[in-house]
Design a protein that fits this description.
It comes from Paracoccus rhizosphaerae. The protein is of the alpha+beta class. The protein is globular. The mean pLDDT is 94.
Length: 591
């Protein structure tokens, strides 16, 4: 017999009754039933119930076992009584009567329990991640992640893509976040960078003539953490294609993502109609460029109903250039109690509140508008608003006004909250949408023009478009949104050096700087570059949605905490003096 096991803890069935077996695993829990001890023995594959009575030579050892001790047991497989069968376990028809136990790895008192689903502070869970990973929910999430990645690889190969690996140590490149820099020992004073994405390399692969590339790529960005974003590193499905337009990229990636969600979505409905929504329209209707289309609410501009009206706050606001009033419809939300809850939410977001109108049945049987705004506007204008929004008796509308870029984000969150409160969001589905026509440039807080998205994108209209107002230039850039999250970002690339130089010049990069920072790619484009484009899908975020988790750290095996610290391994750590001397570096004292 094997030194540690003849079967795993998920193998044994009724057909094994009477066999002598050997199992190894972790003590999940010990139960004492009046002279009979039961151990739930767990390994990667499952759980088996082991028992010993006072006649068993294993009884004394079993009586001293602590939870999470690693043991080997020898014993005989017995059928359980019919009334004691556990249908929830694949091994639930049997139990093993232990005749011998060997402790392979004793366990100290646990800093957090593995048995059960008790909530524990995240700092404790991350410091003892190796214990946390033994818990069923997290173990299953990590296995799901592995299965998703395998499925992605198979699907990409099946669609004619070839997997290549790109360098991890490279040059710094502007990707919208801070680089992690790596000092060079051989070139003192110079630094490599960990790639924020394989952007330049995958474009060079196209120039080299490989046509369809993909990679499960590690990416490194020094970012502020969020619940749906790691502060240090993440993995993405990275792909690039030659001789393609925007719609070709969509046609290539949709079957892969759709198939993943159908395979691993747990029976939730997967939407097959992926609309194309222009960026400006998405902000107007949903207040975000990653809308959750499970929520049917669409905001509308209602400025004309307030312009010169008796509602002085909005009427005066609309006298200023660039302002407007938007309405958030709230079907079935027509009560003062609900309006008060939404206003409380708005105040949590830093607003004094939101104006509202709700419609109710009047004494004469007609539908009338109520609320402070309704009184100020009068019945004619409130009826026009109701007609525009398609609302009825028992419904409401909430209003925000000002410059759209200053209230859109709050409006988007309010739309989500209203949809959630009213039960309008269908949680049992995945809804996708391509967000297209992103602006190439934006104005920074300092008033400068900078790239708003990927700097290597082709502007719509080419060189001619770059001769006009930069803030009106649209790029062939696109994102895929799903249930309120951005899953994919991509673009058709700028493969013409003269257009690239002009695009970077508008953002404040002279030609010399472009040559210095992107010399390899610029040089390659001078020797025959095909039109090409691609995208990248965030694997961590995909798995988070499939696992129905709200925090991305629940689907990453060894994540950092929110301060970008690895509490288990002690990173970041201070280098030794010898390491610093070797790199010719000196650390400044903390401020």
């Amino acid at each position: 017999m094997h030194a540690y096991r003849s079967h795993t803890c998920g193998d044994l069935k009724a057909a094994n009754a009477g066999e002598t077996v050997r199992l190894s695993g972790w003590v999940h829990r010990v139960r004492d039933h009046g002279g009979v001890l039961f151990v739930d023995l767990r390994d990667h594959y499952g759980m088996t119930q082991v028992l010993a009575d006072s006649d068993s030579p294993a009884f004394a050892t079993m009586d001293k076992l602590r939870a999470e001790t690693v043991i080997r047991i020898d014993g005989r497989v017995k059928l359980r009584d019919a009334s004691l069968v556990n249908p929830k376990l694949p091994t639930g028809e049997i139990e093993v009567y232990a005749t011998e136990i060997e402790v392979l790895g004793p366990a100290d008192e646990l800093p957090l329990p593995v048995f059960g689903d008790q909530d524990y502070p995240e700092e404790t869970r991350l410091a003892y991640r190796f214990l946390d990973l033994r818990r069923d929910s997290l173990h299953n999430n990590i296995m799901l992640r592995s299965q998703v990645i395998r499925s992605i690889r198979n699907r990409m190969w099946d669609r004619g893509f070839t997997e290549f690996q790109t360098p991890i140590i490279t040059a710094s490149s502007p990707e919208g976040a801070r680089d992690f820099l790596v000092p060079s020992r051989l070139h003192p004073g110079k630094f490599y960078a960990l790639p924020q994405a394989p952007q330049q390399f995958k474009q060079l692969i196209m120039v080299a003539g490989f046509d369809k590339y993909f990679q499960i790529a590690p990416c490194f960005r020094d970012e502020d953490p969020r619940a749906d974003r790691s502060p240090t590193d993440f993995y993405q499905l990275d792909l690039e294609m030659s001789f393609v337009r925007q719609e070709d990229v969509f046609a290539a990636i949709q079957p892969v993502i759709q198939g993943l969600f159908e395979e691993f979505g747990g029976g939730r409905r997967v939407d097959t109609d992926w609309p194309l929504i222009p960026y400006a329209e998405s902000l107007l209707k949903y207040g975000t460029d990653k809308p959750d289309l499970r929520n049917p609410i669409e905001m509308q501009v209602v400025s004309e109903h307030f312009r010169g009206s008796g509602f002085g706050i909005f009427a005066k606001l609309l006298e200023q250039d660039g302002t407007e009033v938007r309405a958030i419809p709230a079907p079935t939300g027509g009560s003062r109690k609900f309006a008060d809850r939404v206003n409380a939410f708005a105040q949590q977001q830093g607003l004094p509140g939101m104006g509202y109108i709700f419609w109710r049945k009047a004494e004469d049987g007609t539908t009338e508008a109520a609320g402070p705004i309704a009184k100020a506007l009068g019945p004619e204008k409130t009826e026009a608003i109701r007609q525009q929004l398609g609302l009825a008796e028992g419904d409401a509308a909430f209003f925000l006004g000002g410059r759209p870029d200053q209230f859109e984000a709050v409006a988007g969150r309010a739309r989500t909250e209203i949809g959630r409160e009213l039960g309008l969001i269908d949680e049992n589905q995945f809804r996708f949408a391509w967000i297209v026509d992103f602006p190439m440039y934006e104005k920074t807080d300092e008033g400068k023009i900078d790239f708003s998205h990927n700097p290597f994108s082709m502007p719509q209209g080419g060189m001619e478009a770059l001769e006009g107002d930069p803030l009106k230039v649209l790029g062939y850039q696109y994102d895929l949104a799903c249930n309120g999250y951005e899953l994919i970002s991509g673009a058709i690339r700028n493969h013409k050096p003269e257009i690239m130089f002009k695009a970077f010049e508008i953002a404040g990069y002279p030609a010399s700087e472009v040559e210095k920072r992107f010399g390899g790619m610029v040089k390659a484009f001078r020797y025959g570059a095909p039109p090409h484009g691609g995208c990248a899908a965030g694997i961590d975020r995909i798995v988070m949605l499939l696992a129905d988790e709200q925090n991305i750290r629940e689907v990453i095996m060894f994540p950092m905490n929110q301060r970008a610290e690895d509490l288990m391994m002690g990173a970041p750590s201070e280098p030794t003096n010898e390491q610093m001397r070797e790199l010719r570096l000196r650390a400044l004292p903390k401020e």
